[in-house]
Amino acid sequence: MQLLSISKKSVFFTLFGIFLMIQSHRQSKIPDAHVTCIYSEDCILPCTFPPSLEGVVFQWYKQETLIFSFLEDKDESVHSDISVFTDEVSHGNASLLLEDSSIRSRGQYKCVVNTTKSVWESNVIVKVEAPISGITIGVIPTQHVQCSSHGVYPAPLLKWSTDPSLARTSPQAVTRMSADSNDLFSIVSTLKKMSTNLNLTYICSITSKYSLQSWRASLLQTEMTVHFGQHLVIPCMAPKNIKNLTLTWTFISMNTHTDILTYYSETQRIQYYWADQGELDLYKALMGDGSLYLKYLGSKHSGTYVCTFTGFQVIHIVQTLVKNNVAKAISQADSSGFKLWMAALIVAAVALPCVIYCIYNKCKVSQLKHYGQDPQQDTEMQAMHKDNSVEDLPTENKPLAEYNNEDL
């Protein structure tokens, strides 16, 4: 009896092992697949099996909850934005299509396929990403540089740097993150300007978490003091290794923005908006020199000139404040006036004695004519009597003091 009992147990475990082997043969586990869906775009979750013409049944689960089933060419979906490629099922394709994927689409999905020959099971790990679509950088009135990006998922990383790099001082910024109703993040970072260096370029880099997508924005502020009426060149150089860029020049005055020109490096075309005012050297532009050439600068040209280079995931801005050197102009005008005044004074000092002499002679001649004397005869007599002493004069011409008393 005991031997019979042992024999029955052996048979039981043997049959159980065979059953497990059959089950393991009939059910195949496919390695997990990892899919990153792009926000608001369609996304395909893969699930494939050996082609079968009949008896194909499969289900899709999300977090162990049934969301889709397919049976005998009929499908049932829990959500309207979920479907499969019905025509592809007979070819071994049971992939699931997520239409207009959202942040709520992320999670773990499972595909289970039953055929007359086997059972296939696969897991799909879904991530959803809203890539960085743009980056902005600018100066706010409180003398801070601000960098931002919106509509990003998951929360990105932001980093500040400067060019040239400041070895002893690292940029200290305040960064804020917020999410909207669609769970998309906005990141805004504010950095206080460093007044120690006027020619300092501020660089903001924003990097996504999943795809390591990186955007870069940089800003440089400069000033120029010029004299109106002259030609002016406002420098602007493109960052290195930037291709297929677009260059725009804009003029800002009294909160009014005016487009000057746009340059497209891919087509080497320049479009001018500010007629006969600003020009670009096309040859230099091909080398990355986007300097603006202005002719006959006037008072209306005083303001801020903005040069913007835009390329693939990069933007570089140079803001140049152009001011008129009023103080120097006034100083030069005062100096010119002083020089003219001194010259006039010198001329007057030289001419005054001559004028006085001419007036004196004119008055004397008039007086002589008044008494009936000939001015020419008087002049001759003066010349004749010039070398005679008092003793040589006739008696009638002697002074009264030289007569003796006896002569009286």
Task: Give a quick summary of the entry.
The chain is of the alpha+beta class and 408 residues long.
Describe this structure in words.
Its main location: membrane. It is a single-pass type I membrane protein. Residues 1-27 form the signal peptide. One of its GO terms (cellular component) is external side of plasma membrane. This protein is α+β, with helices and mostly antiparallel strands and 408 residues long. Among the domains are: 23-129, Immunoglobulin-like, CATH 2.60.40; 131-226, Immunoglobulins (Immunoglobulin-like); 327-386. Helices cover 21% and strands 40% of the residues. It has helices at 2-26, 282-286, 326-370, 375-384; strands at residues 27-38, 43-45, 57-62, 65-71, 74-77, 82-84, 96-98, 107-114, 119-129, 136-140, 144-152, 157-163, 173-179, 185-192, 201-207, 214-226, 232-234, 246-253, 256-264, 269-272, 278-280, 292-294, 303-311, 314-324. The strands form five sheets. Strands 12-15-16-24-23-18-19-20 form an eight-stranded mixed sheet, with no helix packed on it. Strands 1-9-8-3-4-5 form a six-stranded mixed sheet. The chain has a four-stranded antiparallel sheet with strand order 10-11-14-13, with no helix packed on it. The chain is elongated and about 135 Å long. 18% of the residues are buried.
